[in-house]
Fold:
Amino acid sequence: MSRLAGSLVAAGVTKSYGAEVVLADVSLVVPPRARIGLVGPNGAGKSTLLRLLAGLEEPDAGRIRRTSPSLAVGYLAQERNDAESARSGGQETRDALAAVLRSEFDVLLLDEPTNDLDFAGLAWLERSLAAHPGSLVVVSHDRAFLDRTVTRIVELDEWMRGTTEYTGGWSEFEAERERRRDRHYRRWESSVAERRRIEEQQRRMAEWERRGYGQGRKKKKSKDVKRTFGAKLRQVETVEKPYEPWELQLSLAPAARSGETVVRLEDAVVERGSFRLGPLDLAVGWGDRVAIAGPNGSGKTTLLEALLGRRALASGTRWLGPGVVPGELEQDRAAVTGPQTLLDVFRDFEEGTARTLLAKFGLGADDVLRPTASLSPGERTRAGLALLTARGVNCLVLDEPTNHLDVEAIEELERALAVYDGTVILVTHDRRFLEAFAPSHTIEL
Ligand SMILES: Nc1ncnc2c1ncn2[C@@H]1O[C@H](COP(=O)(O)OP(=O)(O)OP(=O)(O)O)[C@@H](O)[C@H]1O
Ligand SMILES: [Mg+2]
Structure:
């Protein structure tokens, strides 16, 4: 950490990918010791802005500047799991964070650092950041973490492609955003009403003239009427219609129920390199809501793979019940990552059906034809959820589903799961999400 730390500045930055403008004239100053939370819906451009600040990509217009040439900037990318998956998601994150924290950077740019961390890891991260003398820009959808970590919120919006700043943590931001939206709505309503009133007056006046009332007086020419009212209308403040955020409506209806026993493991041992899990005995029944809990590296994902039959048992038996249609959202969203497009991923469905469904998950006409690897992680998570709803699965297997999802999507998933009557097996480190899920069974590893 240099003693004369300066500021990191984005000045009027614009960035597009192909025809899509992701950031339009965005400015941000990160002074020494700043604690900034960067928030916004999936695909709004949070990671893009962080990559620009880190100097990993160049803006199309505008500039990224360091006020002191020695300013050292550290960066943690959103996706940290290597494809070999030699370590668990949480272990990867912890190692990457430890490396970036150790290096005494003046500015830390962290993209969703809490994803995959267990409770101890999260507490460690919060302590480390509080003690960090440099400044911090952190992207996160974790409401409690933001409340404890940041003092300023920068919101990116997908409509204007710009930023709005707020003082405080997540809770203050949410309350203030609500107040601003309210005020904006009221101003817009009254400007619309005022316009209507003037137009109605003008219409009546024109009608009055047409019928020849007021004869004997000097007749007003219709041109004059237009001019007078035109001036009146110009005096009314033009308030743009408030943008109504798009709302995800997620419904998870199982196609048909399965038998009473969904899956059973007996004396099961699973191995993964030198890691060994078991012997385990467990049974999941129809309609159970199972939470699998345990610290990073304890084998939660490995257990899911064994339950799904994706990983062979070293010993013991696995029995899958009749009529079980499992549907999985993998921790790395592997089903929606790669060179294929979203329409390729949904090739089992009619194209129109697929497009309509994906649109409900915020994935529009431009998104469905792009390689899935170029979608943001949140967009890929939404696509993964869309696939589960399309298949009408009756046993949901969700590995850290809230990772990468924006707050609106997390809350919608909470609502959808609350009324889902199929079987759910869930791994999550999101405390609020786990509470809302209300597990009927918990497996501690
Ligand atoms: N290489 C690329 N080619 C085309 N489009 C891209 C590329 N990288 C990102 N995008 C698009 O740019 C937009 C912004 O992406 P970005 O990753 O910055 O969003 P984000 O706010 O970080 O989203 P999330 O909450 O999902 O992490 C998204 O619509 C994304 O699909
Ligand atoms: Mg991102």
User: Anything to note?
Assistant: The two ends are 40 Å apart (CA to CA). Residues 224 and 319 are 86 Å apart (CA to CA).
